Amino acid sequence: MLVDIAKLALVPIDFAFEKVSLSIPRDGGDIEAIVSVKGEVAKDNNIYKVKGNISAELSLKCDLCLKAFEQHLDLDFEEIYSDTQDEDGEYILLSGLDNKIVDLKPAVIGNIILNLPMRIVCSQDCKGLCPKCGHDLNEGDCGCERGYINPQFEQLLGLKF
Ligand SMILES: [Zn+2]
Ligand SMILES: [Zn+2]
């Protein structure tokens, strides 16, 4: 995902990359993603402003039941590139021998990571795995005693006579 900006002047340069395979680093295992990115690079004095859209198909694994599932992510992003870093370290450095290449990959990966939930679940009411036997509780109960009290019974137990 490299954009050559050697000829960039007043008119922004458009870019479009289709279905690029990326690995998104995450604790517990990288996430494989097929990513399409489009947008433009505009020059503003010594900095280069990138504006674009990321459309990603993520191959996720549920943190609770470990089931594999696909999820689509669509987001807009903006980043600033420069050949020198600013004080706050917010610029992404240009690549290439003469600093005329915008490498979109770190920006795309960073923006996808920012938009991942803390906990990845296959559905909001995923029941997870039985901690005793590993059975997927979404497919029904395994019969293990897990010290779990049905909330309805809990209410009854709390009744004072
Ligand atoms: Zn799940
Ligand atoms: Zn069980």
Detailed description of the structure:
- The protein has 161 residues and is mainly beta.
- The chain folds into two domains: 2-124, no CATH class; 127-161, no CATH class.
- It is 11% helix and 40% strand.
- It is built from two helices and seven strands; from the N terminus they run βββββββαα.
- It has helices at 105-114, 151-158; strands at 2-4, 13-24, 31-44, 47-61, 68-82, 92-93, 101-103.
- It starts with a strand and ends with a helix.
- The relative contact order is 0.17.
- Bound molecules: zinc ion (2 copies).
- One zinc ion binds at residues 130, 132-133, 135, 142, 144.
Contiguous runs where pLDDT drops below 50 for at least 5 residues: none
| Widest β-sheet, arrangement of strands | 2-3-4-5-6
* Percent helix: 10-25%
What is the β-strand count? 7
List the helices and strands and how they pair.
Elements: E1 2-4, E2 13-24, E3 31-44, E4 47-61, E5 68-82, E6 92-93, E7 101-103, H1 105-114, H2 151-158
Parallel strand pairs: 5-6
Antiparallel strand pairs: 1-7, 2-3, 3-4, 4-5
Bound molecules: zinc ion (2 copies).
Quick synopsis:
The protein is 11% helix and 40% strand. It is mostly beta strands and 161 residues long. The chain folds into 2 domains: 2-124, no CATH class; 127-161, no CATH class.
Keywords:
161 residues; mainly beta; five-stranded mixed sheet; two-stranded antiparallel sheet; 2 helices; 7 strands; 11% helix; binds zinc ion
